[in-house]
Records
---
Amino acid sequence: MANPFQKAVTRRKWLYFLLIIGLFTLSLFWRGKIQVPGSNEARAIYLNQLRRGGTDESAAPPPAPNAIAAAADWLYSRTIEQQAGVEALELRELEQGDPEITSTAMRLGTLGSRGFVITALWKAAIEKFKRNEWHEFEFLVRTVTRLQPNFTTPWIYQSWNLSYNVSVENDRLNDMYFYITRGIELLAEGERMNRKSPDMRYQIGFYYQNKFSVSDKVRTLSSLFQLSNIPHGERNPKLFRKEGQIDLAEFGEFAKKNPQLCRRLYDQLGYTRPEQIVQFLEDNQQVPSRFDKARNDRLLPPEQQFPTLPIKLPESGSAKALADRFRYTAMISPSETGDSFDAFLAAGSWYAYSMEPLPPTPADQLPAYSPKLEGVDRFRYRIPKSPMLVIFRQACPRVQTYRAERHTKEGWFDAQTRWYPDARADSEADRWFPAGSNVALETPSNSQIEWDRAYSLWSEHARLNGLRLSPEQIANLEREAQGVPDDYNLLNMDEEQLKLRGFTKRAADARMTLRTYYQQLPVTNIEWFLASSEAERDPIMIDARKKLLEAQQSDNAGNKIEAKRNYAEGISLYRQALRKYTSFHRNRQQKAEEDLYEIQAQLIRLLELDPEVDSLARKQGLAARAVIPGADEDTLRRTMAQTLASRVAGIMVTSLDPRVQSRAEELIRLAKTDPAIKEQYPAVEKGREALIESLVTEKEYKYLWEYVTEGAESDENRWVTKDIEKAVEQRLKGS
Amino acid sequence: MTGLSLFGILILDREPLALQHLPGLMQVWLQDAGGFAAVGLLAYLIYTLTNSSDTSESTKLRMPFSTFMLLMAVISLICYSAFLALFIAGIGREEVRMQSDVYGAEALAYVPPALSLKLQPLLLSAGGFFALLGLGQPFVRDLFKLRFRRIYAIAKLSVKEAIRNRLFVVFLIFMGIFLFPVKWFLPNNKPEDEIRLTLDVTAFASTLLLLVPAVIISAFRIPDDIKQQTIYTIVTKPVERFEIVLGRFLGFGTLITIALGLMTLIGWVYITFGTTFDPKAIEESQRARVPLRGKIDFKSKKDDYTGVNVGREFEYRKYIAGSPTTSERALWKFDSIPANLADSSRPDVPCEFTFDIFRLTKGEENRGVDINVRIVTWQCGQEPPPADVRDGVWRWSDPVKQAAYDDKRAEIDEKLRKKEVGGPNAPPSLAYAKPETEAWKLADQLAEEFGFFEVGSVEVYDYHPATISIPPGLFRNARNGTPPEGTPRVTVYVKCLSGGQMLGMAQGDLYLMEGEKSFSENYFKNSFGLFCRALILVGIAVTLSTYLSGVISLLATLFLYISAYFSDHLRDVAMGQSTGGGPFESLTRLLQAQQPTAQLDQTATKSTIDIFDRFYQWVFRRYENIVPNIDAFSWTNYLKEGFNINAEYLLVNAIILLGYLLPWALLSYYLIRNREVAA
């Protein structure tokens, strides 16, 4: 028999053992490893979702059958595993993005001195940058970013460094292009490791948009971008050379397949001969590409392709609509990209992809400041760091506008647009196609389609973000907000505090909405983008742009007569479009007016050089000198020529106005039956042309050169206000 | 006349140490090593003299003391006292040179030490010399007791132990990974950069994989022997203590030589016979140019013109303004011309250059800037235009000769136009003559006769080397006779023609091509630098391990070696050039939230801080003295940019290595002698 001490020891051991077992078992429940009896996992998950906010009512599970089950659900939902919601929190490295074995090995290799190593490498990278040792700089920044792959700022900072600061140090454009691509690739690599960052996706889109649209060397850079999208086998210069000569048949096929590229090289970069284009292909054979040269032009793995494109695109929500427009992923085949694929489509795809982690828009509601992820699933959505949310959201329509502008600039206006490479060929060596043929190149994309898409994207953006309130909506809001001051601190107070100050929450919200609306309108510049895309897609504007481009080309080619005629027709059509779209004309951006004045100045400049105008100006100058003997002859002649040219331009442009044309037709018709008309309009008898000239110089359409409508001779009624005239004149003098 | 390549850009903001720098280096070595020796000698003498009566015989043997040592110590002390007196009196002081002779390189350049005959440095050197003699006397005496077979046995043992450790084998296997094509790890690189990048990566990997095991083995071996008591099997035999150190050092050195030899050989086979490299990369990278470098100068019609600083952070280059009428020129002066440049069998002498373009306007799309290059000999002097003349044309000093040249040139051009000379494919003018043509021969004759050759316009791109051909006749003219004192034999004048652009140049940016050597030879020469660095590391580690434990030796060695990578910063702190002041001043600024560049008020606190900082600077200068100058042993830039590594530089490397290791050997001699290792 055991003595009492031995019994106590045994009891104590059993107690300890049972306590251990009990606490361990309890910890299994507490940790969520064993489900609480009577609970339901779906209901527990839903409970946690409710706590976080952003639940989908339709996906709610049936309620618990009784109070015990509800209590068990509650208990289970509070377990560690359920609260942590392993999937939802996505804290594990694998859920941040693609695993990368090299960077993991490198991190481990620093043996706990990562901070020190990164600091030293960063410093070394700055030194390399100062010394223009770019390839070493790139190697170092890649190492630095890989050592801290989930810190997004260095990825963005260093990719910017490569794409902007390094690339701009290179004179040779293929070198510049190379470093732009390296910056974009670096950021795309970072994005693959950080799948939840809207900022990184946005920045990639921004680099594409910015470097290939507004940079100084955009014409060459966008051509190199196109080369990156053409398989090596199709642009191999050897294909186009046969026995030391250019194989025109092969070259012609290339031109037909890549009309936008060829036209840009021809029109904007002066590569007019086939030999020059082939040389361009040869000089830039090694540009980064989407295709594997060594493997029969198969697509490279997504991470090695340039242009780098998203692996996937949003499949639901408002972002999906954008992804339907910008649908280009790394898997897309070359047949789907083609010659009309440009950096803007790549940018658009990244922008569409960047919208995926954003919280839903306030669709069809009123504008709002950047939300604080309240009422939405905070584990699913992110608010970008910059730019402000509403600007971030308009990236897709913005890039679409850029694309449309590119088409306009490059002369691809509508479905009827054709480009004749041999139209200006001076010799056989200049010809792209055999003599006698009149081959026209055409492309499926054009500015009319693109502007139409831009308009629809801007409209949708305005609708979804409450940026286009009707007058009634504004009046209602004003009514509701009456008496509430526009004080940001006050508007952010809670209901109780507002009540103490004598305001209702509803009224304060209405004031806040109006405040936001009036702030976001100028910030987003939405009115201009809507007005311009609406006007630019109109056939009248398309015709105006066509004529103006033709005029410019004729002018450059030395065909002044044709240039003058085309300018006059173009200006007339442009004015018609301005009359039709008053918000485009009288927009606070004033761009439409500035453009109009510049084009008119071009026409006047051409007319000043006209021999008739010149000789008349000389005569008038001499006459004037007789009155003012001390005046400088040349100055007088120039002043007279300007006045005369302006008058002639006025006649040329206003004569083409449909109102004048129809009035002339009407007067000719009436004159046949009504002699009073002949009396009132003696020019009727001299013919249609004379009548039109009299209408625009002496009669009712005299106002038309300067004013939009008759009667109101105010500055507001001018085609171009005096202030803008002065500003443009100053600018033109400066240039 | 011109060719574009991407290579040949060697930034020489540190002049490589050559034989001409040896006197200066020797003087500095005497001052630095001698200074430490003086302190050691003093401490040693005090110790031995104060413990002479009651110490055991064995201790006396370990701590020998001689009259010679005492005499040297006294002489050394006299020298240092004299120095101190002169220092206080401010007599015979040597100004520290912070700026290199290289014009463009300002604050960044490493300035090789020059021999100074001023009293203070001479006294310091003398003091150091006698201190070294005194401290080195027992060491030299004992050197004669060393026996090669014993050293060999220990060295052999070291190799065997290291091989048994398998550490090197593991590292060699890792090295294999770095020999795979770089494009596997870093895809989408520029094809022409491929070999350069491969050389970078293999150099980095070799350095890491050679030095890390070397230092680990060296730092742990002697302490392990002592810890495991295996050293008793040696020290109980009639072996000189220093033989253990020397044996270990030579053993590890042999091991490193084998490992490095293997790595270099594999690397060379891969680079030379690799088939995956882009042909452009092979064509561009596998070169070893032998350049002839001149001294840069900047001149214009203004007397005080020294080039323009455009505000780039990297102040290596100075700039000249571009304009067709500018008088600003960058000059490269060549004092001596080797005979092979004037060799008549040579078709041409290429002149390569790489400039930095600083744009004030956008310029033309996809175009560089145009420059004019004029090469003249001492027989064809040039003068800038007078200050009051608007045009920027440099004229010949001898107008009659210039007129004769113009006439002759016009005559040749006329004949070329008429195809009377120059053969059927004669160019319309000498300006278009290309080497190895009839017209080029005429250009050569003209250059030889007048010592003048000019390339009207060459397009250069930012950081892209370009080449022009110079007729060898010009160099024959240059070598003919003796130029007046101070006049270079050949001068190259560079002018920027493009308006609104600045052209940046440094001394190393233009050179004449003397010839080319073998890339393979260069590749092996490059390894010598790494070999020296490894020996330095082993030397330090073995020395420290004679007294410290393995881990502490390792850490101390690494600390010393790694701090060598921050030598610029160390130098700034040691010389008081650091932005924001010394550590105490920086701390004050931090606490007071002041800008590093803001001027501090001259208060009592500031004066106290300055005193502390000056003391700190002194400590740092001493520390800087013992940090190895590893930059002097780095030749990868030469290799990858396609420049021959001069054998002279390697010889100086070997001398510096010896100079650096000698004080460490002396230290290890005393440390191992005084280490209690036997029971």
---
Amino acid sequence: MDPRLGTALIVLFGVPAVIVGYIYATEVLLRGAPERLKPRVRPWLWLAPALLFLFFFLVWPTILTIARSFQGQLAGNWVGLDNYAWFFTSGEALVSLRNSLMWVVFLTLFTVGLGLIVAVLVDRVRYESVAKSVIFVPLAISMTAAGVIWRYMFEYQSPGSPQTGTLNGILTTFGVGPISFLQTQTLGLNTLFLILVMTWMWTGFAMVIISAALKGISVELLEAARVDGATEWNVFRHIVFPLLLPTIAVVSTTIVITALKTFDIVYVMTNGNYGTDVIASRMIKESFTFGQLGRGSALAVILLLAIIPIMGVNINRFRAQEAIR
Amino acid sequence: MTAAQGARRVVAVEAKQSAGGTLLRRIALHGTLVILMIVWLIPTVGLFVNSFRPPQDINSSGWWTALFPPENLSLDAYASVLEGTDIASGFVNSLFITIPATIIPIFVAAFAAYAFSWMNFPGRNLLFVAVVGLLVVPLQTTFIPILQTMAGFGITGEFLSVWLAHTGYGLPFAIYLLRNFMGSLPREVFESAYIDGASPVTAFFRLALPMSVPAIAALAIFQFLFVWNDLLVAFVYLGAVRPENLPMTVQIANLVNQFGGGIELLGPAAFISMALPLVVFFALQRYFVRGITGGAVKG
């Protein structure tokens, strides 16, 4: 326990002291500087820690990874586009591409759709906060724990023996199945079942943000429409939904990025077996299990390329927001 | 402001009572919501019940058979997880990783956010947009080069490596969130402080930081959940070199991947790992929506 005690002390006192000390130190340093120079230098001193972290952990590695993706298993062995050619010709890599596309489409549809429905419905009941908490809590659970939880949902025992999985328990009561959910590769159904797990986790995220936007819509506006004889559906279709669209766009963007980066659920539930690999899990496999750092880097670059259009949309949105401020 | 909100609330409650209309509609509304809530709870309830059952029962019958009447439920599995596996040390490791990895990015981001909102320098907006653009760099892109650099410094496997990594990865979101909030604070407060001779350091610690508590709380929840629940970063930077430093998530994942024995340990292990995030979430929940939507949705 002794070395741990030392770590604990560093954790609780050393770290905050260093950070706060830094800002005071910059002010002491600036004291000697000419008055004219201070406002010009100071912002960069305040930004320096953040910019150093961002450069070291995000910008520089991205540049290196792009370079590494043009090299073979051994660094320095330049192979041109071979790793990319491998990606588009290897069956396993193409399966991961298909699965990642499925994740993007279905996870976004399910979470945003359900989140919208729940947000609109809970707005009309008195147990709103309870309902919201129930839907939101899975987001606070680690993907590892979620993987364990859903093992007991999907579990499969051969026909005839008592089913231990919740879903197969329900199905066999009605005389259907049992189905081996995570081994069913037809039409990528097992990937779809994995997406359901993430849907269970992320619907709460979509719901909370859409619900906050919903509260921002003027109640008087909706009442006026109702007084004029609009049905609930028409109020939703022609007033609420258009006003929610910018928020829905923000939520969708976040979820698309989450879907592309998906790794944990696949790793914990199937480890990518039975054709459930996604690009991110394939990338980890190639790099750390097979030692194919070139291929792994190429997979990471492909992920980055897929995300760039979304980054473009995001930056435009921030520019527009800045213009209003 | 409070009066207007009160009026809004009254209108909203009246709308809640009048909406729904016919009985049939109200049944459909409550029915849908109750079914959704049950569906959302069942997976967790299943694991919860199984975490009290002996392994032979878990493997031979569904969790629902143990409920009516309750049979064979005990805390044995929790005891053997805490005594027989590394989960207890994993819990401590998770704390050692999560606390600094939450504090460091909040401070570093707060400094940057303050500079972005209340200091003038050329290229300010362009730099901010670039920082926010980094939100979408996939973590996977960065592992291999950082791992090599860290190995050069000899810190792979040490807690320091994951503290720094989580700080780097968390910063774009943290800066975005805090800058949105700090930028919306009233200008006059800072101007009068400067006129009274306060230095930027004083204005930051005495004004900007205390006034940004809702956003900082929301950020703290996000970053805490993100780091506590992280599997990938810990797996990559700690896993190969110092397995004894691994957090709970990786250790549970390893239990899961060892098919066969020890299946009864999964449930208790998962619940032990969930306990702290749930407490943090419910304790700080009220800041949540206010903090994240402070800049985006003006209600």
---
Amino acid sequence: MASWPVLSIITFLPLLGAALIMALPQSEAGVRNMRWTALWTSLITFAISLFILVYFDPKNPGFQLIERAEWIPGTGILYQKGVDGISLWFVLVSTLLTPICVVAVWESIKTRVREFLVALLVLETMMVGMFTALDLILLYVFFEGVLIPMFLIIGVWGGQRRVYAAFKFFLYTLLGSVLMLLAILAMYLKTGTTDLVVMLHSPFDRELQMWLWLAYFASFAVKMPMWPVHTWLPDAHVEAPTAGSVMLAAVLLKMGGYGFIRFSLQMLPQASEYFAPFMFALSIVAIIYTSLVALAQTDMKKLIAYSSIAHMGLVTLGIFTFNQRGIDGAIYQMLSHAIVSGALFLCVGVVYDRLHTREIARYGGMARNMPRYALVFAIFMLASVGLPGTSGFIGEFLALVGAFEVNRWAALLATTGIILSAAYMLVLFRRLFFGDITKDDVRAMPDLSWRELSFFAPLLALTLWMGVYPSTFKDLIDPAVAQIVEHQQQATGHAPRTAAVAPVAVEASR
Amino acid sequence: MTALPEFGIALPEIIFAVLAMVLLMVGTFGRERSTGLVSWLSVASCIVVGFLVVATDKERATGFEGLFIVDRFAAFMKVLVLIGSGLSIIISLGYLDREKLRRPEFPVLILLATLGMLLMISANDLISLYVGLELQSLALYVLAAFHRDVLRSTEAGLKYFVLGALASGILLYGATLVYGFTGTTSFDKLAALHPADGVHAVGLLIGMALVATGLIFKVSAVPFHMWTPDVYEGAPTPVTAMFAIAPKVAAMALLVRLMMSAFGPLAHQWQIVILVISVMSMALGGYAAIVQRNIKRLMAYSSIANVGYILLGLAAASERGVQSVLIYLTIYLFMTGGAFAVILAMRRGGQMVEQLSDLAGLSQSRPMLALAMTIFMFSLGGIPPLAGFIGKIYVFRAAIDAGNLAATATIANAFYVAAGLGAAISVVSMFYYLWIIKIIYMDPPAAPLDRPAGRALTGAVLVTALFTLLFTFAPLVGPVVSWADAAAQSLVR
């Protein structure tokens, strides 16, 4: 156990950096200092966040590094933080991607640099705060607080239709999350506490569970986003600046999946079981439909945005299998997607910075003049498709195996999504990189600079590491998931839905 | 009966009245030169009396034959009102200078209105209620028309007066009905009356409804809100700021005390009515604000929506409900006061500007002012981690709690539905708050606003913005919540 509050420090350190940036003078040197301050703040935060791994006990499936203090007196609302094997990875993804985003926008954001960096650092605080919160109200504060910096990032530094996209993003997600707030308050009034750890073991009666489940569903389905409430995502992604897209895809979407696991699965097991077929249906529609939509896109960012929705469909499918493999796969898929789609948006950013267009047709033949870029793009593209040896494979495979154990047809249909994803990704790659260069401005584009390589390198390494040696990550995830599965089975009073393979799953988790 | 009533119980009010008179004299003899002095002394009076209120804080005591009551609830509300009035005077200083309205009557009128509010808060009888209310209203009518050479201002004053007098009349008529059917005007006796004496007479209910109508007019809730946008738009901006905060707190305090103590046993009769008014106010405030182009009108609708949320807490008719009202009012005071301070800083070429489009590009010309306005707007929309969020949680908690404890399933469902609607409508309101932020941050800059805004005004913006930003942190939210809890307990026993 740590004797110092690691989680609080990594939550609030970025705010300190933001305050520093606010104090810097507005001059050329000042702007440079702002960038360096942001970079160092986020790097130090990342370095400190690695201490979580040092202190974390992989064998303990519960919450660790708990910090607890009274927050609002007389209400039972706490300031409580902690991580388990699931949330800790999301924390690390958030702290890793923030410095990468700072570097990625080093040259592309030229106006209102101060505000941008402050928004980015505030965003980091909100994300880390959300994944480490162990109190429902505290969690909600961060969950919704994310909207403020993200709204500004999209609305101020975005593309042509940025205002529309920012409003749509904000109001869509807000409508979902206010219903979640009511659900939280209802649970609070039932139990008299907002302590998430207590809540995980408080059984609610079945009828209440149904209502609560629907309220949480409204929130997380929008955040995820699931078909048919996904329409804000392509707009937000397309209009957001590169760093905004990266954060949106890599971390904000994961809040939905994390929420489904924490709230729906862990707190409302009976309702989750009842609604599982519904979730399966929506997931499969999402996988197939959005993959087909992705095939038809002419805008790079939109294509990747739709592919994100499809991948998130696989995640919800995995979560609602209620078995070890499915949930493991869903979590792994979320982590992999965070790295890979984040990287893909960075890749788009690279050419967008050079040519200021996202039209696929405006490019072509870039493998000739930008070989390094082509290689980087290819690896992330293949990871997104789920090629064995990359991070994408592990998650997809586990989620599909989990689904197969529960419902073969669902697994079969979901697998077609994988094929489609290969189709649209390979088509994208061919149109961008192969063939002859027909346009002079494309020919004139320089290959990746050292700055760009510097932020792709860690993501590349992680993608391959996660694909080749998943145990590093799975060893921490498995015990937490095993506990969730066990809890689910006790609560619903069912024998494991995967009786034949359950012993294997438990053994794998040891 | 003693020869002299217990003056000690009303010591803060008496001192406040004396101070107001003294300042009136200073103003009368010092003429226009003394405006600054009188203003600052008025602020000082508010502060001194505020401390006096806290120092003489009692669990519960009545005086003047039961007309006047002092309890934790009154102390809490009085402090809020005094903060609101002090803030209004501070932010009006620069305005009076530039509009050539430097008259010492202005701060003195605010003090007299504030005195009326203090009496309203401590009213424990329909008679003292009316006296306090009228003292407040008369001073406010004059203030609304203070810019007497401007047509809009005189129109606002007249409108406010005519409609306000109508509301006072309705209230008085209700009071006579209550007296006629029960034989008493004392809140305590009214509370003790039912239900054993079989006083569920229709006359009493009508009387109660009419008294409540008068007060609902004063807090500008739907359907008695029509005067609000016009008066807010027409009145001089510092007066509008004042209208939006202090009288609202006082009238709400009066409404809460009346409903919870005098008509407390009739809660099942009025709960649903207040609930319906609450939802209608939220909805109207939310939707009607969207089409506004004048920021003062927009703030008027925003205040109607906020009153809707506060009434949701009152509708719960419980200790938690009252606590939520107190917390929401505290937060509302700071964020609305702050927003008006920013509006007062909107001057271009020496003229006040008040169209939304005048805020365009504020983020580039005045980044700190823009940031403060953004904080207020997100807070008014109830987005965490800003203060407004805490208000929303408490109100919704009270509503859901009332639903859980309701006697019948119909009432329970009404509360659940109201909470759901309130949450959904808060998204609608968020649209226009976002729209202001969009104008500030995303529109091409209009001509820059005048600088400097004045030190007092800047200070007010800074303090309110910091309060709104940092309220969620434990050292700030803790004491407020605890105190509100104690205040609510002293009212609901």
